[in-house]
Please model this.
Amino acid sequence: MKGNKKLTLGLIWSIILRFQMETIMNSTADKNVKKAILELVNSYVLEYIPDPVKNLTSSWYDGTLLAYLIYHQNKSEINISNLLSKTPQERIQFVFDFASKNYQVDYLLEAEDLASSKADEQSIMTYLSSLCASLESYKKKQVKID
Model:
């Protein structure tokens, strides 16, 4: 591959994020993707945490926010106390497995990488955009059924 690999990969990440986020944003022109993800995440987790989530890096390394994201729509299926008592890597792996099984969210990250702070913001944004899009899609389907 000729050219700047980092620039090329960055462009690919941007395209992926835009397409994934279109399902949960009214207009991609109105907000940037990072801000949209943070707003959506906060709409799910603020009832469980004292302060709004402000970043897409260190706030995610222990898996607590991921646990609350899936718990929000799956309260009858998830024992949140038990999940929060697990190690960060176990908690993250549970969320990844649950999201894959129940929401068809691909494994875009390794639990070990996220728990050990090796995952970068772009990777976390991509996973969260996929998870949030799936959660929103599922929520809309549930509303139509009810």
